[in-house]
Amino acid sequence: MNRRNILWSAVSALGAAFGASSAKAAAQAAPSKLKVAYHLSDAEKVNFVLGNIQNHIDGVGGPEHVTIALVIHGPALKAFHAMQANPDVSKRVGEFSKGGIELAACGNTMKAQNVTLADLLPGFVNAESGGVVRLAELQSQGYLYLRP
Prior knowledge:
Blueprint: H1 2-29, E1 34-40, H2 46-60, E2 66-72, H3 87-98, E3 102-106, H4 107-112, E4 124-127, H5 131-140, E5 144-146
Parallel strand pairs: 1-2, 1-5, 2-3, 3-4
């Protein structure tokens, strides 16, 4: 009887070890896409942050290999007004939007600057509850937070 229990325990332990190694191998074989939230509020950092995002996309092999959200509030939002945006910013925002990057404009900043989504470059969504609220939501969804 005692031998049977020892044998059963050994077989159970071997099965558990095999199952754990199979799960680990499956997780390594199909890594999940990294999710990153970029926070931009400083007007003087607009080009720097857009460059960081482009470097991030290039570094991972394209937008299909990473999920990125850019959340903008405060003075930085003025750089994304369609009538004021410089051509480089307009071009990058268009490429990012086509690449699936979420471009979120703080609803509170939009009210303060008296702008609507129609006044911004194409591709933006309204973070109606606020930019910082959107950043917290993204972090709760597993996004890594970057504020370059």
